[in-house]
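Minutes, project check-in

Agenda point 3 was the complex the collaborators sent over. CS summarized: two entities, 266 residues total, and the question is how they sit relative to each other. Sequences were read into the notes so everyone works from the same version.
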Amino acid sequence: MNPYDEKHDQSQLTHEEKWIRELLRQAIPPIGNDAEPAHDLWPDMLKRLDGKAAPVPWFDWALLAGMIGVAAFVPASIPVILYYL
Amino acid sequence: MENESSDILNAFRRGSVDAFETLFRQHQRAVYGWILRIVRKPAVAEDLTVETFWRIHKAHARFEPARGFEGWARRIATHAALDWLRANRTEAALTIEGLPEPAAVQATDPAITSEIRSRTAQAFARLPVKLRIAATLALVEELPYKDVAAALGISVAAAKLRVFRALRMLRKDLEQQGIRP
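CS then shared the predicted structure for the full assembly.
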């Protein structure tokens, strides 16, 4: 069986491969098309959307400025900074 | 689901939150179902559905209405699920929460015991993530290769190759455990 062959499909699987496929289907039940979330996810989405508007804390800006300063004055520290990022 | 009104799709592209909500409500079930097929954990699938729509929202300006929403959303959902599987390899083992237990599935071969099913699931979980997703969608969910390929952003031939490699690796793993047809 040539897996690169465009015409290769599941009907061309060997007997052993078909057996493994069957084994797989029994070990891992198909989900099918009927699954749906336990609840409406839009409220979760709204929380996520609202979160994006949160401003970056001043401390993060100070930290970033500090890191840039250290990197500018002590270039040898760049690998160390990158390591901890 | 490809026939959303072009007004909604265009409004979404321009960044309208109302249009985004409409698309979210239209597609959340399909996106959730798609992700669940890959990660097989309902709670994770819910989180990843929100993550997928978050990515969709961020990428609204790159959306091309002419190409439809569903396929685009499915590709993003696949990548979100792939990222989760890579980041949570141990948690991503195929223990299934809230889904039918393997034993409840109609057994067509009485020689396939629960122990064999369990070992098969474990062997499957050891496959590389990319191969596992392709095999899950094509072999377990029996989706057409063109759908699998489109979701993974690869050619049909490449999707078939991944399934082929997954089968080969799985067969080797099972043989090492003494499991043969």
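Noted in discussion: Chain A touches chain B at residues 1, 3-6, 8-10, 13, 15-17, 19-38, 40-42, 44-45, 48-49 (CB under 8 Å).
Follow-up: revisit at the next meeting once the mutant set is ready.
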